[in-house]
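Weekly puzzle thread! Below is a chain. First person to post its structure in token form gets bragging rights.
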Amino acid sequence: MLDRRGCGVLLHPTSLPGPGGIGSLGGDARRFVDLLADMGMSYWQMLPLTPPACGNSPYSAFSAFAGNPLLIDLEQLAAEGDLPAISYENGSNDASVDFEAVSEMKTGLLKAAGASFLANVDAPNKQEFWDFCNSTPWLHNYALFMALKRKYKGKSWEKWPADVALLTLEKYEKASIELGADIGIQKYIQWQFFRQWRGLRAYAAGKGISVIGDIPIFVGYDSADVWSHRELFLLNPNGKPIAVAGVPPDYFSATGQLWGNPLYDWEMMGQQKYVWWIERFQSMFELFDVIRVDHFRGFEAAWSVPAREKTAVNGTWVKAPGTVLFDAIFAAMGKLPIIAEDLGVITPEVVALRDRYKFPGMKILQFAFDSGPSNPYLPHNHQKNSVVYTGTHDNDTTAGWYHSLSDTQRKRVSYYVGGRGDDTIECIIRSALMSVADTAIIPLQDLIRLGSEARMNVPGTAFGNWDWRFTWDMVSHGLTANVRDQIECYGRCNSNC
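Winning reply:
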């Protein structure tokens, strides 16, 4: 799939227009798929679809397997009879997501829908629901975790009573009975997410659009995964992390990034034949056609920071299983279409791990102009087996980045891409499209020429991220034809062209 020339757009579904204050898996998502197909695109790339936890980040979720309830299209639930007709106070043109307000509104309606469905003995999809419950191995642990989190008013699991936080089989069975109603609603919400997602993905496939998902290497500490599988993580007997993940000082931050995720107990995972990882990849490939593995270098070695530290400066590199892990995954699943996010401190060992499996790496054009002609991100140094981006969700938009440069730097960029200044952003996009790299991905913000106000995330900052949304009036008349002409010119048009 990734070995032919193609192009895609990076946009997280929360950034879609539509009613309810946040993007959803409903009609606007299908309209966006139509836009991609009309442009000649082959891919829709997005961020993790898991339920976000701290700071609304999709990279810190309550589960590595569950879907984000805030993406559920409530209008579909109303059409099926689980809710009355939906009337939103906020319309489709909100420029950003108010996560607190959206979560309060949507969570209440989803619970009402779940209660209505479960109480209706004649619900036409009841068997489909039970089949989902019986065939989804992670579901009960997640539903119980979320029900307990609600019972204890949203507190992180290590602050629950000790017999619940450090769960015993007896307490597990007792809590499952006591919280049965809430657990059922949580299972209903996940069922609705996955059935809506399957419908959207099938629609995309019918338009020739493959979906690129994102799998974070680490999981959130306050998650069903860590709570229910403490043995797989480096925790002390009280369930507290011994060390946490991050990255050393880099392009994005002088003190590094202290992510706070617990590190894996790779020895224990090896003893269990990496079953948890195999199940995770199996789950992701049931959702997506291609997976971008975030922080790929962490599979070779991870930056380990003592849990007491306030920044990521005082960490050390700790080896990970690398080839042993991927050999186990491939033995179980066969060859997989994976993009390796090979940014940051990349050693020869990381390159060897990536190249052993022929995973395409990433080339970011915004990183290309801060050194001489040997910079690996410059288009003349790209390799065929790679994915070129103008920028990612962690970068400023290309327009914002370009206008933040000094006059000398802007002249250097414009000269390289053949721009005159006012058209340099378009020329940067053209440079990505004409690259020898098989795959090119352009953030929607760049296609519609938005500035820093449309930035998705500033790494190293905990709040104020992930909330950008576009509106349909940002998609100018003629954009589709212009983009399609360029994609055709550089041999990247999808199979339906």
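Puzzle host: Confirmed. Bonus trivia for everyone else. The chain has 18 helices and twelve strands.
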